[in-house]
Design goal:
alpha/beta; Rossmann fold; 7-stranded mixed β-sheet; 6 helices
Length: 235
């Protein structure tokens, strides 16, 4: 059983970016934790009730996918760029230390949303490849109506190189998406159910699959079974 961690900026990013993959991990017997950086409502000027409703939706979504109850770290929505990165890292680090994840999914750096970019930076800082780190794989997901809307700057565009077959889990992902029904849009919006399904079909067609979620591999480390690196001295 692997320990999997999803670090998402806002509730709904987790299912938009890797809902099918989460369901697949759970089906394989892996344990999946979800950490949100912000509530996703503050920037809209909505009150405490709206924030509670969004987290209730997050709990329902996690239940459907089979993940553990999510945690929100409480940073200001769409204002994470105003917080010193060190402060963000210190809070996230405490959450990660409790989980000790082996596989991590988070946002791509080349994303339009400032919270998504800041989350990516914080995750990579917390999960530096230190000798005692539990993390062995970090993958970046795409969020419809955010990742593809960014300026296509050289070196920052989302270019996937890992495709996960999610065809058996599309129904579960769709049910989980409906927990965030108020966040979905009408077609032809990228965050409509039709747009999300079209993306899954395109990522599948791009990789010889029917339906897929795509990721950019940030880091993959293969350790020896004992967790030690064997070095042969050169003479």
């Amino acid at each position: 059983m692997a320990k999997v961690l999803i670090v998402a900026a806002h509730p709904d990013d987790e299912v938009l970016g890797c809902g099918g993959t989460i369901a697949r991990h759970v089906a394989q017997g892996d344990h999946v934790d979800i950490v949100f950086m912000a509530d996703g409502e503050g920037a809209r000027g909505r009150g405490h009730r709206a924030k509670q409703s969004r987290m209730t939706a997050a709990y329902k979504c996690a239940d459907i996918l089979g993940a553990a109850r999510p945690v929100c770290l409480g940073f200001d929505d769409n204002r994470m760029d105003r917080v010193p990165v060190l402060d963000i890292v210190q809070v996230l680090e405490k959450a990660v230390e409790k989980i000790c994840p082996e596989i991590i999914y988070t946002h791509h750096f080349g994303d339009l949303n400032v919270d998504h970019r800041t989350t990516h930076q914080a995750v990579l800082t917390v999960l530096r490849p230190l000798p005692d780190s539990s993390a062995r794989s970090i993958f970046a997901f795409e969020v419809p109506s955010s990742t593809e809307w960014a300026s296509p700057c050289a070196g920052e565009a989302f270019i996937p190189n890992l495709y996960v077959d999610v065809a058996p889990y599309v129904e579960i992902k769709n049910r989980a998406l409906m927990a965030y029904k108020s966040e979905l849009r009408e077609p032809p919006h990228a965050r409509s159910r039709e747009g999300i399904e079209a993306l899954a079909r395109w990522r599948g067609a791009s990789s010889g699959l029917y339906m897929a979620e795509a990721f950019a591999v940030i880091r993959m480390i293969h350790k020896s079974p004992a967790g030690r690196t064997h070095i042969r001295k050169l003479r």
